[in-house]
Write a structure and sequence with these properties.
Homodimer. The chain is an alpha/beta fold. The protein contains twelve helices and ten strands. It binds 5-amino-5-deoxy-1-O-phosphono-D-mannitol. 5-amino-5-deoxy-1-O-phosphono-D-mannitol binds near residues 61 and 110.
Length: about 375
């Protein structure tokens, strides 16, 4: 069943190009061009979900919460709609005041996470209880299990088509959730005309190229990351830094590492490091920074240099063939230099491999880490 891979997690990491390909083929009209007046996205969602939309609120847990944070950047930047992302376990006991014309999205790969289901149910009920039509519930689920409890609770679903995931650490379902947010953001952008058709065409073309780009990262990086992992068999703490749309990827890299290797890891927005975590740094705490071309590239490099000045060993997820990055970091995990907005699909791959190889090197049960379950069906 593992098809020659040592663990399901590694097999699932390698399935990601295929998952992204399936998502693109399922939900994008790949023949679309900027002179067409049809929606390039084929999610098949009802128009009334989107009428007069003013806000989006998303509830999720764990890795699904990280995918939702990427989704927030996409919905805000491509479609211009203010978006809030909440931990389901927080939202259910301290919900935000009701906002008008709001789309509520629950994101859960299993479709069975108790906190996410309870948060959605609570939101549905409190909105149904108001007479004001502007506050009426509009609920959407993003899940890998279209037959799950989530699908029975909410009227509209985006099926992420990642195939069953066995490893407790989510990898291919994360990528598929992120893909769902690209499609949703593009769908909204098309409906609201917030992007020039040429820009939509460009994003579609980049999304079409993603499977090949992920394959290239897997092929070029795995051997090196396996070697690099040898350096960290005794390491006790890691810091992951990112900014903008790659901040959630720093969180995800840290979560993957702690889940399966039991190493303490923190993800932080790179600019926040100087407000506290920098005190942790010394030669024993490696720092992984994601520095991709775009609005915050120089800023992340200078944040990384601050860490270097404290003797931290610096690992950079950086664009291929980038001299400045080569100069800054001790170890490089290069990915193709794509549009900043698309970069999370690539930057997460070396971080998944890093977590996997460190845990495998430590001889741990990668697919079934201690104290964790694939679906968390209790509060
Ligand atoms: O099934 P869900 O997506 O709702 O699961 C949410 C979290 O329990 C889950 O993402 C957890 O954090 C994973 N083990 C992460 O790898």
């Amino acid at each position: 069943e593992k098809q020659g891979f040592k663990h399901f997690m590694l097999k699932e990491i390698y399935e990601q190009p295929g998952v992204v390909r399936t998502c693109v083929e399922t939900y994008l009209d790949t023949t679309w061009s900027s002179d067409r007046d049809t929606n390039p996205v084929t999610l098949g969602l009802a128009d009334d979900l989107f009428t007069d939309l003013e806000h989006v609120q998303i509830v999720a847990c764990g890795t699904s919460w990280h995918a939702s944070l990427v989704g927030k950047y996409l919905i805000e930047q491509l479609a211009g709609i203010p978006t809030m992302v909440q931990y389901a376990s927080e939202f259910r006991y301290s919900p935000s005041p009701l906002t008008r014309h709001t789309l509520t999205i629950g994101v859960t790969q299993s479709g069975e996470t108790a906190d996410t289901l309870a948060a959605l149910e609570m939101e549905q009920k409190r909105r149904q209880a108001t007479e004001d039509l502007a506050l009426a519930p509009r609920m959407l689920g993003i899940t890998n299990r279209p037959e799950s409890s989530l699908a029975r609770l909410v009227p509209h679903i985006i099926d992420t088509h990642a195939g069953i995931e066995i490893g407790v650490a989510a990898t291919k379902t994360f990528i598929a959730q992120v893909m769902a947010f690209y499609f949703l953001a593009l769908d909204l952008a098309y409906r609201r005309q917030t992007l020039k058709p040429e820009r939509i065409e460009q994003i579609i073309e980049e999304l079409r190229q993603m499977p090949g780009q992920i394959e290239a990262v897997l092929e070029s990086q795995e051997r090196y990351i396996e070697e690099l992992a040898h350096n960290f068999s005794e390491t006790q703490d890691f810091i992951f830094l990112g900014r903008g749309i790659n901040f959630p990827i720093a969180l995800e890299g840290a979560l993957k590492l702690k889940e399966i290797s039991y190493i303490h890891a923190e993800g932080y927005p790179a600019g926040e490091m100087k407000h506290g975590p920098i005190a942790l740094l010394d030669a024993k705490v490696p720092v992984v920074a994601i520095a991709m071309p775009g609005t915050v590239y120089d800023k992340v490099l200078s944040n990384a240099q601050e860490a270097k000045a404290r003797d931290a060993q610096l690992i950079g997820v950086v664009p291929l063939n980038d001299e400045e990055a080569e100069f800054t970091f001790n170890s490089l995990l290069p990915v193709p230099p794509v549009d900043e907005l698309l970069s999370p699909i690539l930057t997460v791959i070396p971080l998944q491999l890093l977590a996997y190889h460190i845990a495998a090197r430590r001889g741990l049960d990668v697919d079934q880490p201690r104290n964790l379950a694939k679906s968390v069906t209790v509060e």
